[in-house]
Write a structure and sequence with these properties.
The protein is of the alpha+beta class. Helices cover 62% and strands 11% of the residues. The protein is elongated, with a radius of gyration of 42 Å. The two termini are 77 Å apart.
């Protein structure tokens, strides 16, 4: 039976405070990253404070489900990192409480947050998206005079197209102005050219006032009673300064929802599933219709492309004649007109097929977007649980709190998830990958990692012990460690100098015999190294005896002996014989040529090093024996 204990409340309090702080930070970072996409829509629009508040409010609601996983990852990592760093986690385990039991309260809280995330995406998120898009479109249509681009025609003003060659934003002057005003059809257009000018909105935001300098005005004077082929008079006006008033409602008004509600992000799961059936049925009907039309076109072309033996009969002037014969009877001008018409028909058919292909691709993309949005509601909620089972075990393993290591690890994990999820989404959207594979890529990759970290943390593994990896790399690369023997502050019993001197003399004799019996400067046989068992027991015995003697002499009060003891090298007793202790590892290493060459060269290096180390041991033994004799004489 699940009972709430004091430990659960204690850990939940620490996690709750950190989660709130991390959530605020993550939400702020995501909003700033999202804001850069729409910063041009906000600057210079004269928007009121309530409109800006609505903009940020809807943006924050939309981004909350994305902030939940990152906040859980960071807060859980810091929580268990603080417990480990302050030895509280050690005390919890010493009391017989496993890490799995210590995590149960936060597991329940994380599952609750995942359910809240799903509720936001299902109920609140679609409404926020509709309101945000509606607000954004309305903001884009407000005060278009600040949006006029350089070098292209701007059609944001009703009934007019405006071209500006260059803008001086500091002085508010436009240069190289060209205006097309459409009074009715294209034959009634007015063309206005000006060297420079200014544009500003009127006080009531209902019109735009254009002040133009040094320009010309061209306009057709067509009247309603004129025929099609009648000569159309026009007027030309040259002006130094001219003001033009254009109708434009620059006030802020919310646009109609229109096609916003058709977006998959504006729908809940039930509506997405319902609309998917309609979309698929419509896509199938469009596909069948396009297929039937393509079949008809293919049949017609196949008939027209046959040789002269295949004839299409047509009744002309009471008798049957072939198309080829009819074509040959035409004049050169008529033949040219027939060929031109045929080419136009072919081009029209190809254009029609391209349009149908684009339309079918867009319809299929809408179907994929609805499927991706439905899957995203589950994966984004599930990522909260996955990130917790990554952050909490990592904090227990690393045992580092604060905002240093946890922040770095959280950012790395989130970047990996973001790259996988974003890559899968893009590839699924362009139909390079299936929707299920693309949207589940990040979840499938991180789930085993979360289970691995949780397992290692419950087993008190040293998978992230820096010292262990440093020692392993030093052994792999053949890097040696130095001795560090310090003079003892409290010495109860002095070393047995005479016995240690005799041991050192014996070690020197055995070392000399070993060097005479084994030629360490000779390259070993690779078959013996990788495929035959055996270790160098002589060196291992000599090294153990030497270490025992060094340990006894380390209790001396003589500084010179301490200095000589630190000169002894640290020997790897078996590194010069074979790479690993296990026979099967040596066989696998030898069979795989790249690793075999690496460890063979490494072993040769250890043999040369052992040769030098043994010579150094002999010299140091002689010096120590002489120093012990001096102490005995004193």
């Amino acid at each position: 039976m699940f009972r709430i204990k004091k430990l659960d409340i204690f850990i939940a309090k620490q996690f709750g405070l950190l989660f709130l702080a991390a959530f605020v930070i993550c939400q702020f970072v995501l909003m700033m990253q999202f804001l850069w996409r729409y910063v041009d829509e906000l600057i210079g629009k004269g928007l009121s404070m309530d409109v800006l508040i609505q903009f940020f409010w809807y943006m924050g609601i939309m981004l909350m489900p994305q902030a939940f996983p990152l906040a859980i990852l960071l807060s859980s990592l810091i929580t268990f990192g603080n417990l480990g760093e302050s030895s509280e986690l050690t005390a919890i385990k010493a009391a017989g409480i496993s890490l799995r039991q210590a995590m149960r309260s936060l597991t329940a809280i994380t599952i609750t947050i995942a359910c809240i995330s799903f509720y936001f995406q299902e109920v609140i998120g679609p409404k926020a998206f509709i309101s945000f898009q509606q607000l954004l479109i309305s903001m884009q249509q407000k005060n278009p005079e600040v949006e006029i681009p350089e070098g292209i025609f701007y059609d944001g003003i009703p009934g007019s197209n405006l071209y500006v060659q260059k803008k001086d934003l500091e002085r508010g002057v436009l240069y190289g102005i060209m205006i097309y005003r459409m009074n009715g059809n294209y034959e009634d257009a007015a063309v206005i050219l000006a060297d420079s000018g200014r544009i500003q909105a009127t006080a009531e935001k209902k019109h735009l006032l254009l002040t133009l300098y040094s320009g010309e005005w061209f306009e057709n004077m067509r009247q309603s009673g004129m025929g099609v082929n009648a000569n159309v008079p026009y007027r030309r006006e040259t002006f130094g300064t001219k003001k033009i008033l254009l109708d434009f409602d620059g006030g802020f008004n919310l646009t109609e929802m229109g096609g916003i509600s058709a977006d998959a992000r504006s729908k809940g799961l039930s509506r997405i599933v319902h609309d998917l059936d309609s979309i698929r049925e419509y896509n199938d009907s469009v596909g069948h219709q396009n297929y039937r039309e393509a079949q008809q076109i293919t049949y017609t072309r196949s008939v027209l492309s046959k040789d002269d033996s295949t004839k299409i009969i047509r009744e002309t002037a009471g008798r049957n004649e072939m198309y080829d014969s009819l074509y040959q009877k035409q004049s050169a001008e008529q033949k040219q007109r027939i060929l031109t018409q045929a080419a136009n028909d072919v081009q029209m058919t190809l254009t029609n097929l391209d349009y149908k292909a684009e339309w079918s691709h867009w319809l299929y993309r809408e179907e994929r977007m609805h499927m991706m949005e439905a899957i995203n509601k589950f994966t984004l909620s599930l990522s909260c649980i996955i990130f917790f089972f990554i952050g909490a075990p990592l904090g227990a393993i690393i045992r580092k709190g604060g905002l240093g290591v946890p922040v770095i690890i959280s950012v790395i994990v989130f970047i990996v998830f973001y790259i996988l999820d974003n890559t899968g989404m893009r590839m699924a959207r362009i139909d390079e990958w299936t929707v299920w594979f693309g949207k589940l890529l990040g979840t499938v990759v991180l789930s085993p990692i979360a289970m691995f970290f949780t397992y290692k943390a419950n087993k008190d593994s040293t998978v992230f012990n820096v010292d262990m990896y440093r020692t392993l790399m030093m052994r792999l690369l053949g890097l040696r460690t130095k001795r560090s023997i310090m003079k003892k502050e409290v010495i109860i019993e002095d070393p047995h100098y005479q016995e240690d001197s005799n041991k050192l003399a014996t070690i020197s004799e055995e070392t000399k015999r070993y060097m005479e019996a084994h030629n360490l400067l000779r390259w070993p046989n690779p078959i013996v190294v990788f495929f035959r068992p055996g270790n160098d027991q002589e060196i291992a015995t000599l090294y153990d005896e030497l270490e025992t003697t060094i340990e006894d002499l380390s209790y001396t009060r003589d500084k010179r002996i301490i200095l000589l003891l630190n000169r002894y090298p640290v020997i790897a007793p078996n590194a010069h014989t074979r790479p690993f202790h296990r026979k099967w590892l040596n066989i696998i290493t030898g069979l795989f040529l790249p690793t075999g060459v690496f460890f063979y060269v490494r072993m040769i290096r250890f043999r040369f090093r052992l040769y030098k180390d043994l010579q150094h041991i002999l010299r140091t033994n002689d010096k120590l024996i002489a120093r012990i004799s001096e102490l005995k004489n004193k």
